[in-house]
Specification:
The structure holds 2 protein chains of 2 kinds. By secondary structure, chain A is α/β, with parallel strands linked by helices. Chain A is built from 10 helices and 6 strands, in the order E-H-H-E-H-H-H-E-H-E-H-E-E-H-H-H. Chain A has one domain: P-loop containing nucleotide triphosphate hydrolases (Rossmann fold). In chain A, strand 5 and strand 6 form a beta hairpin. In chain A, helix 3 packs parallel to helix 5 and helix 4 packs antiparallel against helix 5. Chain B is mainly alpha-helical. Chain B has 12 helices and no strands. In chain B, 78% of the residues lie in helices and 0% in strands. Classes of the chains: A alpha/beta, B mainly alpha. At the A-B interface, helix 2 and helix 3 of A face helix 1 and helix 6 of B.
């Protein structure tokens, strides 16, 4: 990952996307290998790493019994943003994500898209260097998805933040990401821009490239041994 | 505002906002006070023990504090379910600060609810012997609240399923209440029951309140012992809560 870029992490269900995010955000200890984020090791410099990152989890993590403003404010205190700066940042971000008018409403009255926007706004409150978005558009309608990515692109321009995102929607990765990494079974199978991946696999769409890289079988968490052998073999061949 | 402060404020705000819950949680104590207080009153009187309402009012206040404090800790299961817990766990702050904020918030809510019930007992006819003793009684209420809020934090950090909540209610909270002597005097009990009441921290809370609010003679252990035990147990439970909370994996 390079500073300032949008980096998409693609992979089938259970490929290890969320696990990777959890390790990079200090929530899980890796069983082997090493991690580096902004020159720091998340396993040993937990607090410093946490200060540098913003995370939007796959599952919502807002307090729905509090207002949008209160959710933002708590986050600001947890990340040691001074009072004055906190107020200003909250206002800027809530306006940017079009939630300013609803700041005094309880989050439980928000729609799915609004909650997502609030989570991203909150993740940016402490001006992180890297923003992790774990499937931020999951379960959103096309309008909200579209709007979400417009916001994320705007962020790059205004905040200069590096974005690390995972998604299942190929068209989104194609549109938003500067570079894409495909992982499967916990291994990186390919990295490059969307165009490079297409070229590499000799396909004309990112979706086809993705399938060429990870196989077409649908797998459940517990695939049969033979299935796993086949997939391991495929990964090895690359 | 500090981390402890903002998480404390969160608990208190949520409590003050949920008026329905506030009124609903008055139901249990009101039942005990109304039905048992007045129902068993004549029997108690005939046994030569004076007014039962007077006797059990501190018990019902203790019960309210116990229940509210335990509930607030268990609310961590909801925070886990709805993800807010994770938001606090990835923040660059010590776990201890998060744990203390939550626990003190839960304890404060329990004190507020206890105050509400105190008011209700006054309306029902409870008369403390001395007005001066009331503030001291509130110190005891606060101690009970911290003890059980910390215990609840320890439990809430340990169990992960919502189903565990029922277990805690049936096998911990109810026994803590029934074994505390909130409803009966501690004298002349069978030895098993006597032993069990002595390991229940709430026993000392109720005993202390009784001594303060309805007269020195009614305390079984004496205020000194009561406060010492609650302080000791409080320190142990807060430490246990902090330790369990530090072990949570998001």
């Amino acid at each position: 990952m390079r500073p300032g870029e949008s980096f998409a992490f693609l992979g089938p269900n259970g490929a290890g996307k969320t696990t990777t995010i959890k390790m990079l955000t200090t929530l899980l200890h890796p069983t082997s290998g090493s991690l580096e984020l902004d020159g720091l090791d998340p396993t040993t410099h937990r607090t410093e790493v946490r200060r540098r990152i913003g995370v939007v989890f796959q599952d919502p993590s807002l307090d729905s019994e509090l207002t949008a403003w209160e959710n933002m404010d708590i986050h600001g205190v947890l990340y040691h943003v001074p009072r004055q700066a906190r107020r200003e940042r909250c206002e800027v971000l809530l306006r940017m994500f079009e939630l300013w008018e609803r700041r005094a409403d309880l989050v439980k009255t928000f729609s799915g898209g609004m909650k997502r926007r609030l989570e991203i706004a909150r993740g940016l409150l402490h001006t992180p260097k890297v923003l992790f978005l774990d499937e931020p558009t999951l379960g959103l309608d096309p309008q909200s998805r579209n709007q979400m990515w417009t916001h994320v692109r705007k962020l790059k321009a205004t905040e200069g933040v590096t974005v690390f995102l995972t998604t299942h929607y190929m068209d989104e990765a194609d549109r938003v990401a500067d570079r894409i990494a495909v992982i499967d079974h916990g291994r990186l199978v390919a990295t490059g821009s969307a165009a490079e991946l297409k070229q590499q696999t000799g396909t004309d769409s990112l979706e086809a490239a993705f399938l060429a890289l990870t196989g077409t079988t649908i797998r459940d968490e517990s695939a049969t041994a033979a299935d796993q052998m086949r997939q391991v073999a495929r990964v090895w061949r690359r | 505002m500090t981390v402890v402060g903002i998480l404390w404020l969160r608990e208190v705000k949520k409590y003050l906002r949920s008026r329905v819950q506030m009124v609903a949680s008055l139901g249990g104590p009101l039942m005990y006070l109304g039905v048992l207080g007045f129902g068993l009153g004549p029997v108690f009187q005939r046994a030569g023990q004076g007014s039962y309402l007077q006797f059990m009012a501190p018990g019902v206040i203790g019960m309210t504090v116990l229940f509210t404090a335990m509930f607030s800790g268990i609310a961590m299961l909801w925070d886990r379910q709805f993800g807010f817990l994770k938001e606090t766990l990835v923040a660059p702050v010590p776990r201890l600060a998060i744990m203390l904020g939550r626990t003190l918030g839960g304890a404060t809510v329990a004190v507020l609810q206890g105050t509400l019930i105190f008011g209700v007992t006054l309306i029902a006819g409870f008369r403390p012997v001395s007005v001066l003793a009331v503030p001291v009684a509130f110190l005891l209420i606060a101690l009970i609240a911290v003890v059980f809020a910390a215990l609840a934090t320890a439990i809430g950090s340990t169990i992960k399923e919502m189903q565990g909540f029922q277990m805690v209610m049936n096998f911990l909270v109810m026994p803590l209440f029934f074994l505390s002597g909130a409803l009966y005097p501690l004298v002349g009990l069978p030895w098993v029951l006597a032993a069990l009441t002595r390991v229940d921290p709430l026993t000392y809370g109720v005993d202390g309140m009784r001594g303060l609010l309805i007269g020195r003679g009614s305390a079984h252990f004496g205020l000194g012992v009561d406060v010492a035990v609650l302080l000791g147990v409080g320190v142990v439970f807060v430490a246990a809560g902090a330790w369990r909370f530090s072990k949570i994996e998001a």
